[in-house]
UniProtKB/TrEMBL annotation:
Annotated protein name in UniProt: Uncharacterized protein
Record lineage: Eukaryota, Metazoa, Ecdysozoa, Arthropoda, Crustacea
Main subcellular localisation: cytoplasm
Organism: Darwinula stevensoni
GO MF annotation list: deoxyribonuclease V activity; RNA endonuclease activity producing 5'-phosphomonoesters, hydrolytic mechanism; single-stranded RNA binding
GO cellular component terms attached to this protein's record: cytoplasm
Length: 241
């Protein structure tokens, strides 16, 4: 897969051009101001039946990992599924959920990619630029970047750089001994080592960081609740036989 592979669909060319414009604004060095007291997890879930999605932000105390606040925003899916442009689909509900927060996070870990993306503009990077907040991409599955699996150690903290377009765009990171790696990359206003350090700190016991675990649990709970409500609503309007 070569760089620019997804740019063949001219209908979405304005969005690819916007990605290139946004990419120039990304800060890939550590620009976190002061102490990180609150750290958030971000995730989005979809209900294909109703064409709705839920974005969630869960704010944790950065030291105790206790949940401080959580907010969700439900809305219609406003952007189609287009490879390479996924952030245009997922960022809007997260921005709205962020507006509801009383406790603003100092850092956000996204269940998504950051700069380890074909166009250098994964959801974590896009969200960081939109909110002007330091963000980290921490994805469960690989997207781009070549790394040597044979050299990735089995112990917690082992890393292997991922190369894309002759640059290091992220790392494969082992967060626990003998588990599948996560794929960590800079989102915005952090450097790669800072991203690695925070993902490990947020992953004391499980493969996924606690930020992701909490955000994922919240969106899935809300989506399950919405689906049950929709089902009950449909049943309620049925005519008696």
């Amino acid at each position: 897969m070569k760089e620019g592979y997804y740019e063949e669909d001219s209908d979405f060319m304005p969005y690819y051009l916007l990605q290139k414009e946004l990419k120039q604004k990304v800060i890939s060095y550590n620009d976190i101001k002061g102490e990180v007291r609150y750290i958030a997890g971000a995730d989005v879930a979809y209900n294909d039946a109703t064409k709705k999605m839920v974005g969630a932000l869960v704010v944790l105390d950065a030291n105790t990992l206790q949940v401080v606040e959580q907010q969700v925003h439900e809305m219609e899916v406003t952007f189609p599924y287009v490879p390479g442009l996924f952030s245009f689909r997922e960022v809007p509900p997260l921005v709205e959920a962020f507006k509801k927060l009383q406790t603003k996070p100092d850092l956000i870990i996204c269940d998504a990619h950051g700069m380890a993306h074909p166009n250098g503009m994964g959801m974590a990077t896009h969200l960081g630029l939109e909110l002007d907040i330091p963000t980290i991409g921490c994805a469960k599955s690989w997207l781009v970047g070549i790394y040597d699996k044979s050299l990735l150690g089995l112990e917690r903290g082992a890393t292997q750089p991922m190369m894309w377009d002759s640059k290091i765009v992220g790392v494969a990171l082992r967060t626990q001994d003998n588990v599948k790696p996560l794929f960590v990359s800079v989102g915005h206003r952090v450097d790669l080592q800072t991203a690695i350090d925070w993902v490990l700190k947020m992953s004391p016991s499980y493969r996924q960081p606690e930020t992701t675990r909490q955000a994922d649990h919240l969106v899935n709970s809300v989506m399950k609740e919405r689906m049950e409500i929709d089902f009950m609503g449909d049943e309620a309007v049925e005519e008696p036989i």
